[in-house]
UniProtKB/TrEMBL annotation:
Keywords: Dioxygenase, Iron, Oxidoreductase. It comes from Streptomyces platensis. It is an enzyme of class 1 (oxidoreductase). Belongs to the 2-oxoadipate dioxygenase/decarboxylase family. This is 2-oxoadipate dioxygenase/decarboxylase. Its cofactor is Fe(2+). GO terms for molecular function: dioxygenase activity. Its EC number is 1.13.11.93.
C-alpha cells in the first residue's frame, strides 16, 4: 500500500521529471541548487541544516498551477487531498502587483510536522477572477465563463481515486500507479492547438488570464527547488548564460537570520506551441508563460513580526520613491539592521518569530529549580529554541515573480470597483477550510511550550 506521504513524494518526483523534460533549463536550476547546497553544507556544517536537514532541502519542491473556476479549484483540492495536502493561506495577487494579475490563490501543503519532515511538497494554486470588472467587461466575462465551463481538467477516474486515497489514507500499489499516472498527465503541457484569436483577446487583459482561460487544459507553471544561498545561485545561473529576473524577491540578505521567504527565477522561455488561426489553419507559434523559480526559506514570523516586516517594506517603498537612484537592496538592508534583532534569541525575545522549545537533557546538575520565564530558561541553558521553517508564501513576492515574467503589464480599469474575495469565500467555494498559517505556527510553538511546562513541572506556560 502507498500511504499519503508516499504518494506525495512519488508525485513530486514524477512531476519534477516531467517538467525537466518539458523545460530543460529547470534541470539546470536543480543541478545548480544542489551544487550550492553541497558547498554551503561543507562551509557551514551543522549550521547549514538549522532550517531543515540537507535531505529535506534537496528533495523539497513547490509547484505552481493555475485554474479558472471554483469548481476546478475544488477538484484540485481533491487531488491534493489524496496526497495529504491542505489549503493554507489566502493570497490576493490582484492587489499585490502594479500590472494585471487577476487571480486569487492558496497553497496546498502538508500541515503536520512529521508530514512536512517526510516530504514538504507544496503547490501554489491560483484561480482566475472573471467577475472582477477591473479586468473583464460583461461581454468578455460571459465568453470566458462559457469557455471555462466547457472544459474538463481532471478526468473522473483521477478524482475517484483521489477521493479513495483521501478517505482511506492510502492506495494499493495498482491504484497508486494509476493515480500517479493520471495526476502527472493532468499537469502536462497539452499538444492541442491553442485558439490564437481567443488567446490574444485574453492576453490584452493579462498574460496570466490567457494562460489560464485561453487553453482547454492546465499545466505546471513552474517547479521550485530550495537553495541554502539564493544569492550564490543567482550569480551562478547568470554565469551559465541563463537570463534571470531583475531581482530577488522578499527580504534582503543581511547579517541577521533568514526570515520568511526569498525567491527568484529565470525568465519565462519562448516555448513552441501549435496555434489555430480563425480560418482553421494550424501554425507554429510560441508562448512565454513558464519559468524556473528557486527559493530560500527562513524562520516563520509571528503576526507581530509580519506586521513589522510589512511596515518595513512600505518604508522601503517610500524611501525608494524619494530617491529613485538609491539601491533598493541597500535601503532595505539598512532598515532591517536598524529595526530587527539580528539574532534568533532577539527575535524570540521580542515575540517576532516562531520557535519550538525543548528541555536541554541533563538539567539540573545542582538540584536548583528552573526559573519561571522563558527568557531565563533560555539564558540559563534549561531550554533550547529551534526555529520553525516558514512553509508559506508572500503575496507581494509571488506577484513580483509573476510580474517579472510578463511581456507587458496588460490592462486594469481602476475606475471600477473590484470584487471582494477572502479566505472565508475561498473556503466555501472549495468546500474545505482554508487554514490560517499563523494559527498553524502558533499551535506548533504552543505544543512545544506545553511540553516544556510538563517536563519542568512549571506553573503554566513559560513566558
Amino acid at each position: 500500500m502507498f500511504s499519503q506521504w508516499q504518494l506525495r513524494a512519488a508525485f513530486a518526483r514524477r512531476l519534477s521529471d516531467m517538467y525537466g523534460r518539458e523545460v530543460p533549463a529547470y534541470t539546470t536550476l536543480v543541478d545548480v541548487s544542489r551544487e550550492v547546497n553541497e558547498e554551503v553544507l561543507r562551509a557551514r556544517g551543522a549550521d547549514a541544516e538549522r532550517l531543515g536537514s540537507i535531505g529535506r532541502v534537496t528533495a523539497e519542491r513547490h509547484g505552481a498551477i493555475r485554474v479558472g473556476t471554483p469548481e476546478e479549484l475544488s477538484q484540485v483540492a481533491r487531488v491534493f487531498g489524496a496526497l495529504g495536502m491542505h489549503p493554507v493561506g489566502f493570497y490576493d495577487l490582484r492587489e499585490a502587483a502594479a500590472s494585471a494579475v487577476p487571480v486569487v490563490s492558496t497553497a496546498f501543503r502538508p500541515v503536520d510536522g512529521e508530514e512536512l519532515a517526510r516530504n514538504p511538497f507544496r503547490v501554489f494554486t491560483s484561480m482566475l477572477t472573471p467577475a472582477d470588472p477591473r479586468f473583464f467587461d460583461p461581454e468578455l466575462r460571459s465568453r470566458l465563463e462559457n469557455f471555462l465551463a466547457g472544459r474538463e481538467l481532471f478526468p473522473p477516474e483521477l478524482l475517484a481515486l483521489a477521493d479513495r486515497a483521501e478517505a482511506a489514507g492510502e492506495l494499493s500499489d495498482t491504484d497508486a500507479e494509476r493515480f500517479l499516472h493520471l495526476a502527472v498527465q493532468a499537469f502536462e503541457l497539452s499538444p492541442e492547438p491553442v485558439d490564437k484569436a481567443w488567446y490574444e483577446t485574453l492576453e490584452k487583459v493579462s498574460a496570466v488570464a490567457a494562460d489560464i482561460g485561453g487553453v482547454r487544459s492546465t499545466h505546471i507553471n513552474h517547479l521550485t527547488p530550495r537553495v541554502l544561498d539564493i544569492d550564490a545561485l543567482y550569480r551562478r545561473m547568470t554565469e551559465r548564460g541563463i537570463e534571470m529576473i531583475d531581482a530577488i524577491q522578499g527580504p534582503p540578505r543581511w547579517r541577521g537570520p533568514d526570515v520568511l521567504l526569498r525567491q527568484t527565477s529565470f525568465r519565462a522561455l519562448a516555448e513552441s506551441r501549435a496555434m489555430r488561426t480563425p480560418d482553421g489553419e494550424v501554425i507554429s507559434g510560441a508562448l512565454r508563460v513558464r519559468f524556473g523559480e528557486v527559493e530560500a526559506r527562513g524562520i516563520a514570523l509571528t503576526r507581530q513580526g509580519r506586521a513589522r516586516y510589512d511596515a518595513l517594506l512600505a518604508r522601503v517603498d517610500e524611501l525608494a520613491a524619494l530617491d529613485p537612484q538609491a539601491d533598493r537592496v541597500d535601503v532595505a538592508r539598512a532598515l532591517w539592521t536598524a529595526e530587527l534583532p539580528d539574532t534568533e534569541h532577539g527575535l524570540a525575545a521580542q515575540g517576532l518569530a516562531h520557535f519550538t522549545y525543548h528541555v536541554v537533557p541533563g538539567r539540573p546538575t545542582d538540584g536548583s529549580r528552573p526559573p519561571a520565564g522563558l527568557d531565563a530558561l533560555l539564558d540559563q541553558g534549561w531550554v533550547r529554541a529551534e526555529p520553525i521553517v516558514y512553509e508559506d508564501f508572500l503575496p507581494r513576492s509571488a506577484a513580483g515573480i509573476f510580474q517579472s515574467n510578463l511581456s507587458d503589464e496588460g490592462s486594469r480599469n481602476n475606475d471600477r470597483t473590484g470584487i471582494a474575495y477572502d479566505s472565508a469565500w475561498l473556503s466555501g467555494a472549495i468546500g474545505r477550510e482554508v487554514l490560517d498559517p499563523f494559527d498553524l505556527y502558533e499551535e506548533q510553538q504552543n505544543r512545544s511550550l506545553a511540553q516544556v511546562t510538563r517536563e519542568l513541572a512549571l506553573d503554566g506556560l513559560p513566558g
